[in-house]
Amino acid sequence: MDLSVSNRKTIFTYGILVGITSLLHYFELLYINLYVIICFLFGFCYVIFHQSNVVIQPKKRNLDEVAENYKFSPGINSLLKELKDSFERNAGHKERHSMASSPEVDAILEQILTFFMRDFVDNWYSGICSDSGFQESLKRMIRRTISAFSFCLSKVDWQELLTRDIVDDVASHFRLFRKAKEKLDLKKEISYNNLESLFFDVELEMEKNYCRDLVSTTPEYEIAYFKDVVDILLYLLMPSEDFRCRPLRFILRDILVNRIFVPCFDKLSNPDYVNYMIVWILSEVNIDTDAFILSLETSHSVPELEAILESIDEEINGLKSKDKGREFLDIVYQQIASLEFAAEIIKKRMVVLTSHPDLEILNEIEIGEQITSDLVQLPITVIMTNNVAISYFTKFLRKHGGQNYIDCFLAIEGFKVSTEQQFKALAGGEVQEKDVAKVVKDSALFLYHQFLSQEAKTRVPLDENIINKFLARLRNDEPADTWFEAIEEKLIDILSKENQYYPAFKKSNEYIDLLIELGILLASDLNKDDESIADEEDGKSISSLGSFTSLEFSQPSVEYLKKNLATSVVIEHLGIGHQGQKSFILYNVRVRKESSDETSASEWNVIRRYSDFYKLNQIVKEKYPKLKHISFPGKKAFNNFDTMFLEKRSTALNLYVNTLLETNILEANNGLDSIIYDFLTQKTYTGIKEGLSKKVISSLFNPVVTSVKAIGTVVTSVPDQVMDGVTKVSTGLNRAASQVLNTMGSKSDDLSDYSRVAADIQNETFSDNIPLRVLLLFVDEVFVLRGRGQWFRRQLTSLLHQIISATLGGSINKKIIDLVNWLTSSEQVVQYLIAFRESMWPNGILNTKQESRSLSSSLRTRLFARTQMYASIPDELRIFIGTNVAVRGVSNISDCLQNRHLNRRLIYVILERFLVKIFPNNRFDKILPQLHSKSPRKTTA
């Protein structure tokens, strides 16, 4: 180790000696080189700085003098300015692309775009740069995108989309909710989450290969779904050069998803907002006392009733605190009494709900009694002449045998109606006599081969003598609607006397359901003698049995009746009804109304008790003392059910009512027509009840109505060419025959109930009629009328046809097409855009206010929306389907709309429908199911 250290020292010593020797030897050469370089740099700097003053400065002064003395051409400045402006225009993309085919629409869109850029882009970009190039380029891209979207919208068949596809989606949504509730009832587990789960299970059954559960309930998956959809939309609509810019595309996608789509879906799926919009849409519907009281009596939410009760208490306190003049005291006391009446109804309902929390709508027996065997025994003539009653009887016979009898009876009724229509057409010169004779005979032969011949698969066994007499009349007599009269009487006789038919029906659950449906089960007069006038003052009428079963019969409104005074009435007793040990007489009031020119007529039936006539007489005598002289049949102490006495009473009642209907009496007594027509048209006749005044009802919902009116009406007014006239649409020759020639069979409910609703109307009568098709979709599904048989559905079709005819007039197809075209016209699009602009930028200023609504306000809005939905049902349809069915349908809609996730699912369905229709060539019908393919239900199915 010591040796290595000494070696290193030796080497270091020799190195230093070599370096010193080299420096001494070459020092002179290095010194000379360094000296030359320094002298050169010093001389160079000296020459530059010294000579610049001598050579450059004189030249600079000479140049300045030339610039001052020489005048340039003035065109160069303007040329430079034009070049600069042109460069800025081209660089900033300031050219404007038309966004719509209409200049009016384009102007509104441009204004909205200006507001958007000002409030959402300029406020942050101005801090980065003062140049407007970015904003102008962004505007250019938005204009071109909207223009492409507008072009796609112009190619959409809005008539089919609005009148069939959207209606199909909404009605199918309600069907899924109904099926989920039915499954939930079978499981006996009432749970919010279970209902949602069953709903999406049923949706998978209907859609077959996909389900929207994840996108409706999972926010993370929803955002991923929106990103995929927006990517596709940007690809289809954005200019290609802009779409290739990935950062721009990504930031636009995130803005659209997180700031537009998700917040909009949150808003639209909010149950309170949905109720709010229902109130706005139906704001023109007049709410009567009956609708409001019925909503209170059928509410199944205690907090909802508490919110209404709170409003009533506030209104009562407000009325008591106001110092009205003596002349207004009676009005104030009347309003307070009305409010207290409503409060009492609410309190009773709350007691029922707290005692029976699982109570179903209208199935509750409000007087708290159990159903016993002491039921009202309705005569079979009442059953066979009432839409609601005969549908329950048909349902019973379908289960327990005897369906052929009722099918044959209904077919004969259809034959009678169509024959009458043929004769009317013949009288009007619309058809030839030989054509009528052929159609009537063909229809009669069809019924014979369907039900009466030996080879008929659905043969009705009847006495051969009756059938032979019918065949003889068919061969020899002129066409008439009385050919089947003897057969029809025999059918009623068999159904009424055979124990397995009507007697068994009166002991079944279907009969109890019928009485509940008709509103006469366990009424306040169950233990009272109907013939005792003093006890009947508060009794309930049997008029809820509704209207006659004829296909053309429908009960018009009071206002429509009052326009035409050519009204006649025929009153006849139907038979004796029984309630326990009590009996009463039912009277059938057949009303016939003829037009002033006697070209058209309509009929309907109303069922009344003697007590109803007595109430009418008491009201008339009280309000019009001059009419006391009109004879009214009084009550007999004994033998009230004697046949001769009943015939005399019917004759006297006929004379009494027709006397009141005389034109000179109606004209001389102002207001009498309203009283009479209330008696002839009201479903349940109660005389004159004060109830709740419209002022009281409106005061309870003023906060809701006031806020709704603030939205403004988008569709300002329907033009005259769309909604003009009220004319009757006559039934053509082939259509009348087809009503009879249709088979009585129907599709399997188990299969069709899991399909889309639109699949069920392909073979419906008048299926080519657009508005009728829309109403059939909604009415059939919302009010669950599928199980009532094809006869009932044909009657429903005819009734809706009359309603649409009275609403839109003669050419229904043309009217509804005109209406759809008007709703999608450029003028209306301008109104829609103006409404959007005013809601987002009132007075040109961004609306940043978020109004918070209290829970009580939301609850009141929900009840008000349900009330308006019920009040919007036409009286004719309400009477036809029954109050119970109507209330159940409205309640199901309301319950369905209170679920945020299900609302979200419905909005997704509508959005996807729009995408498929707006971009028909871009395979959205294949792409969208793939986006839902990750549903766990599909993998486990």
UniProtKB/TrEMBL annotation:
Pfam families: Nexin_C (PF08628), PX (PF00787), PXA (PF02194), RGS (PF00615). The keyword Membrane applies. Residues 102-286 form the PXA domain. Keywords: Membrane, Transmembrane, Transmembrane helix. The chain crosses the membrane at residues 29-49. Residues 565-687 form the PX domain. SMART domains: PX, PXA, RGS. Signal peptide: none annotated. Residues 383-498 form the RGS domain. It comes from the Eukaryota. One of its GO terms (molecular function) is phosphatidylinositol binding. Gene3D superfamilies: Phox-like domain (3.30.1520.10), Regulator of G-protein Signalling 4, domain 2 (1.10.167.10). One of its GO terms (cellular component) is early endosome. Belongs to the sorting nexin family. This is Sorting nexin-13. It comes from Strongyloides papillosus.
